Amino acid sequence: MAQHSYRIGIDIGGTFTDVVVARDDGLIETRKVPSTPDDYSRGIAQALKALVEDYQTTPDRITGIVHATTVATNAILEYKGARTGLLTTEGFRDVLEMRRLRIPVLYDLQYDKPKPLAARRLRLEARERLAADGSVRIPLSREDVVAAARRFREEGVEAVAISFLHAYANPRHEIEAEEILRAELGDGVYICRGSEILPEIREYERTSTVVVNAYIGPVVRNYASALTARLASIGVTCQVEMMHSGGGIMRLGSAVKRAASLVESGPAAGVIACARLVSGSDEPSIISFDMGGTTAKAALIEHGEPARTTEYEVGAGINLSSKLVKGGGYPIKMPFIDVSEIGAGGGSIVAIDRMNQVSVGPQSAGAYPGPVCYGLGGRQATLTDAFLTLGYINDIALAGGSFPLKADAGRAALNDQVARPLGLDLQQTARGVLTLAVTTMTRAVKAVSTYRGRDPRQATLVAFGGNGPVVAAEVAMALGIRRVIVPRAAGVFSALGLLRSDVEQEFVRPSRRRADELDDAGLEQLFAALGADARRILALEGYDLGQAEFRYAADLRYVGQAYELTVPARRFDIAELSELFHREHERTYGHRSQKDAVHLVNARLTVRLPLVAPRHQFAAEAPMRRADRAVSFNASGSAASIAVIGRADLDAKARRGPFVIEEYDCTCVVGPGQSARLDEAGNIDIALEAA
Amino acid sequence: MSAQAIDPITLEVIRNALASTADEMALIVMRSAYSPVVRDIMDYSTALCDAKGRVIAQGLTLPIQLCSFPRIMGFVRERYGDRLKQGDVLIANDPYGSGGQHLPDIYILKPIFVDGRLSGFAATVAHHTDLGGIVPGSVAIYATEIQQEGLRLPLLKLYEAGQPVEAVFRILEANTRSPIEVLGDIRAQIAACNVAEEGLRTLIGRYGAQELDSYIDALHDHAEAMMRDVIRALPNGVYRATDYIDGVGENPQPLPIVATVTVADDTIDIDFTGTADQVAASINCPISLPESAAFCAIRCLSQQDIPNCEGYLRPIAVRAPEGCLVNPRYPAACGARGVVGYRVFDAIMQALAQIVPERAMGGSEGGPYLLAAGGTHEGRPFVLNEMVVGTWGARAGKDGIEGISNPAANLSNQPVEMIEADMPVEVLRYGLVPDTGGPGEFRGGLSFIREFRFLAPTRFVLRGDRRDHPPFGFEGGSPGAPSAHILLRADGTEQSLPTMPMESFNARAGDVFRLIGAGGGGYGDALQRDPIRIEDDLREGKVTAAGAARDYGVVFAADGVSIDRDATARRRAALAEART
Predict the structure, then answer these.
(1) Which of A17, A398, B123, B271 could form a disulfide with A403 if both were Cys (CB 3.0 to 4.6 A apart)?
(2) Can you tell me the distance from the alpha carbon of B546 to that of B364, in angstroms, rounded to the nearest whole number?
(3) Contact B8/A324, CB-based, under 8 Å?
(4) Is A563 touching B (CB cutoff 8 A)?
(5) A644 to each of A383, A391, A490, A631, B388, how far by Cα in Å?
(6) Is the Cβ of B404 closer than 8 Å to some Cβ of chain A?
(7) Are residues A85 and A131 in the same domain?
(8) Residue A99: which of B66, B403, B429 has the nearest Cβ?
């Protein structure tokens, strides 16, 4: 009997682990299984074992696993990373603690600064000094490094980050120091250096990045070996790959080395799924909108390419992409898909203060105890309780009936804690709470659109995650967006994205030359050197580069500016590159300066190995009309009885709202003045009337 | 307020939309600005005002600048009334008669018209690299009248109905040593104003002009009510505090800043009578800044999330006699006036510490320490502008923070690597200094050290403070360690420079300038400090063993690192006894 083989995408969340299976003929199946936070690999192994049994196959037919995880992020948020040491240039061990000095909130004298991930006593110095051009002013003192190693050993340090001034321009001293530390400390201690992780100017950002990497490196390393062992124990020996925050996948070994790149792996997967959804279509501009239990996330995708950034602060609470230097978290400078994240999810707590100001989030009841209506012990009213009150979600049970709800408790909480103190009726209050949450989520969308000079009204919103499709149309309306798409498997869409990602890695070489000092030959030389770096490293990791795409780009700015804009380098033509920069500057900031000199700061290269996979298809679904229910859409709070249907009840003909579409993993609300149809791929396509 | 009912949820929605617009303005400035002062140190601010010129939202920028917008907007109303047109952009920096602070701070303001109706103003201010005058950077302490300090711009139109006023641009270009930076930063400020225009237009499109107006009125009223609530909770009374500027030159005479804070029911009056007279140096501080510092200090009293709109200023009155350091008469020089603004904040904070110590903070580093250095290297001119901050005083129940901006500022630091890449300057050290936090049950933050080696002949000027009058402690806490300016010549000689030297210095290649800020003030009796905290400080190298024994009365066990609890208790009791 011809046996199928399977690739599996696994996205681990706090409560559920989402599993998407792609059969070799492209057939997709999705599952949600409980997460096992004490040891996530146990839950994964259980899920895979069950799959093998259900499919009556053998473990060797699992030919690939792509994985996204929050272990790295959680280690930082919970301060459970490694005992981390830092070795710096003499005179600069406090750079990590002094940060960029900025305060994320005004007028708050009770503010507490995030504590450094490497304590001061574990930050040691070595005599050495490079100049900005990489030339050696003071040679590295080997005795200092040896002495530091001894100290680290005495202190029981589990990881060491090395960050010397100007190491981006010349890694020699850092490499020497790394060799000495390895010899002294052995392989048990995780060691990484700034010149390898982030060879870019600005000592604080580079040091912070390499320290975050060291802090979570051992956690990721342990996780990877536990996972590998656990999989081997059930006979699964295929290659395991991880999603990085930049939206590409990499081998487990690279993930261990560049642990900090895992921080946004889950959200990145969702954005990739969106980008693949529209690839090949004529959709010029997409905003992905992913809402789960604690946060809402948005990203911009233009012509199939997600917008990217290199600045991110993990643990900063609310994270608006491309934000100001705020100082509320731990900066990582690495390729990230530019996802803005804001503390508004289904579990967000609704509260009012003494002055009757209403707030939704950022405090969250999370997955546990969760919203009041979950009946798991949550006492504070949440956004989900407001959804329920409005009739947006089923008030009997979720997840296809498997998760019963205590609707009355949810309504009562909202009524007693919010409506009554405000003197409003319950429905009005629930509507107001939704409006407020929508405003907050709107900021996440604006952060990736208007903040970057893009008009969201020109874009299509693609909604997913457990709660995304519940509110997507309202978010769209608030921003003047006219079209919303709710894809198949919307509730586990990030896991699906894992199976649609290419292997992708980014390489950087600093240049710091003025455009007018460079000719085309010089430019070509720079990019050729970068290409050679990439080939060498990827070949070492065992990749076949036969099908690889090499995409070059350049970071440019006007001489005197500090922040670059990145433009694609399709040809090695310095005049063209400069013109592209002028145009991008005008588009982003509204002006250009033909007079001012342009600086080429970095050459960038993204190598992509395109995924070879069959076209995905979903099993046919049966129509599943349910009982109508009362849903309230207007500000006055009055409710009307509307239809509740399944996805398969829609067809290519537009159906006028209001109605609700219920599925196993999520609910989609189509309001009055909106209509929805099903496209050929099975996506729900919602059209909003112009306001 | 209009008859229309105000829905609390819509109010919150509008408040968020306004706040995000002001933040977006700040982001645009940072990313597109040219000068290190704006793009790296982030010495600029952004706000959105309503049609009456009242601030309705502040960007995440500098409190001490933000609270100065009300005054300049008053001048805009007075000067232009209803004669502004769509596409106009206003510029000003003049402290005398135009609401400016000192010449490097250029305000760019743009009236916003929607459907032909004046609907609001975008407001920005940024510290520019150079506006001419006797020294690069336009901040010479030894200037004695404003004419020596550079280009004065009274409130003028920079754009008229969308067209640049070429004359103003030409004058600007001809009066700065850094035309590319100055014009580039002005473009960044205008780009931010355009973003605000778009944001306000969208809001009016959604709510309609009249409804938005009534919500904005409600926002002001709401902020006012919250602030009155905060003040009403304070005991009525007159609270007076004096802090000092060390004074200028080789033999500085202390300059008192006296703040008398009167709490009467739900209002606060702050009076600076008794403050030193204006001086023949450039630290005179036009009223715009002291007023802003006062608003900022009072705003810090509230632990609630008061909307950052002008309504909260209504219960607060600020007055200062003319001709004193905090309200100088024309033509007093004011380039280095910032230090006085920070001391005003400190004096008021000391008065507040008498009323609500649990919400006050000990003295911080004292505000930015300025180093402006310039010269010519390999045929190209360079200007290094440093404004170094870094330390908070202690709070009730919390140590002061080290490695943080002054609470009234929110400045950043220039990356050492950026300085070294662009200038013939090497930074030898940037870090924390042990034993400098003011001792207390909760200690002040540690001071910073930043050391520069000049690699080419360089002329530089300085402005520090807090050497003779270090940052105050409170509730029995001690002051922080004093600041220092040290010049280490390449030939091995060492020289202490005044905090506010009335001259510039010439450094030779290889000379080193060492800057040490003051430590933060402490809170509470140092003999009450928990030995666990002291042990932690010892491990972290934030306090030395000798410092711990001297400042905190501890006795070490035989191992020399852990504290002998019993012996310490005995010694502390004896020390307390000896005090009385």
Answers:
(1) A398
(2) 24
(3) no
(4) yes
(5) 21, 11, 18, 10, 62
(6) yes
(7) yes
(8) B403
**CB-CB under 8 Å, B417 with A202:** yes
CATH label of the domain that carries residue A152:
3.40.50
Segment among A34-38, A342-346, B262-266, B552-556 with least mean pLDDT: A34-38
Q: What is the pLDDT of residues B519-543, one digit of tens each?
A: 999 999 999 999 999 999 999 999 9
Q: Are residues A187 and A238 in the same domain?
A: no
pLDDT tens track for A220-266: 999 999 999 999 999 999 999 999 999 999 999 889 999 999 998 98
Give the predicted TM-score (pTM) of the model: 0.89
**Tally of domains in chain A:** 4
Q: How many angstroms from the chain centroid is the CA of residue A41? A: 21
Which pairing describes strands A6-12 and A16-23: parallel, antiparallel, or unpaired?
Answer: antiparallel
Are the C-beta atoms of B194 and B124 separated by less than 8 Å? no
Substitution target in A83, A93, A99, A107 with the highest count of B β-carbons within 10 Å is A107
Residue B144, chain A, CB below 8 Å: the answer is no
Q: Determine, yes or no, domain membership for A608.
A: no
Mean pLDDT score, B463-476: 97
| Cβ contact, residue pair B8, A356, below 8 Å | yes
State the Cα–Cα distance between residues B95 and B290, nearest whole angstrom.
12
Final residue before a domain boundary, out of B187, B220, B253: B220
pLDDT at A451: 66
Q: Beta strands of A402-448 (E only): which ranges?
A: 403-404
Q: Which residues have a Cβ under 8 Å from the Cβ of B78 and sit 6 or more positions away?
A: none
Q: Which residue of A101, A119, A354 is in closest CB contact with B404?
A: A101
Q: How far apart are CA B565 and CA A51, in angstroms?
A: 62
* Residues A237, A157 share a domain: no
Whether residue A154 lies within 8 A of chain B, CB to CB, comes out as no
**Residues A5-62: tens digit of each pLDDT:** 999 999 987 667 889 999 999 999 988 887 787 888 898 999 999 999 999 999 999 9
Q: How far is CA B525 from CA B353, B415, B474, B528, B542, in A?
A: 15, 37, 9, 5, 19
Q: Cβ of B58 and A561 within 8 Å?
A: no
Distance from CA of A404 to the nearest CA of B (A): 31
What's the rounded Cα separation, in Å, for the pair A228 and A252? 9
Residue of chain B nearest A97, judged by CA positions:
B403
